[in-house]
Amino acid sequence: MAFPEDEKSISDSAPVELYTFTIPGTVYRLTTHYKDFTFSGATYTAVPGMRGPVAVSSIDDPPSMQIEIPVSQAVIKDNWFSLPPREMTLLITRVQQNSATSEQVYAGDVVNCEVTGRVARLRIPSSLDEPMRTNVPAAHTQKLCNHFLYDPEICRVARATFEIAAVANVVNGVNITVSNVGGNPDQWFKAGEIYTTLERRMIIDQVGTVLKIEAPFRSLTAGGSVTLAAGCDHTVRTCKDKFNNVLNFGGHPHMDAQNRNPFLHNLFKIFNP
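^ that's the sequence the OP posted. Answer follows.
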């Protein structure tokens, strides 16, 4: 029998759903089958979990989906307890065991992970759903810069100019000692990034060549190559002195110290001398 006939059959339908999560350089394979399942030479690890119903917003728009799996799974621990991956895709394949046939039933990008207790909920939106959930961009009126560092369209600081290559001499959890920091002073890389070809982490402290990161790397070992990118505290002084980029500064450094609206503040003084 072919796949569609097995799907419709009451007696012959024996489906297994396979979940393939992919980030650049790494693939995670899971299944909700009662035991590990081998398909096309790859083993899919059995996990307790479930997916919600597929929601369709329009005929032409890909459906959206939510998947729940334990937080103990590597796909969650490796990627969602630190800086989220720049890209993660999900492919769901449905296999009919009796006829040994299969079909790809879903494909999409994982854009969000919410953890409640021991359960992680991954959201894979439709192409229409995601833009509609996004807030309309707005600039906050504040002393600090609103821009994302190294944004090529707005911040315009060239990342390559403020990156250096190094070797991780010591890797001890969140503490990493690198071979060099390019002669830069302490805290030059604070709020910046350290990354390999597969992973990236935020640097939360730097003294000399010793870094403290927000979460351990899963694959970096002593002797591994890394790249460091300088960080920014979003003040106008740092923008000018460190990045020579004050023309693109996205804050209001001369605001009133208490961030008061100057027009309302003057009115208040008029009516309350």
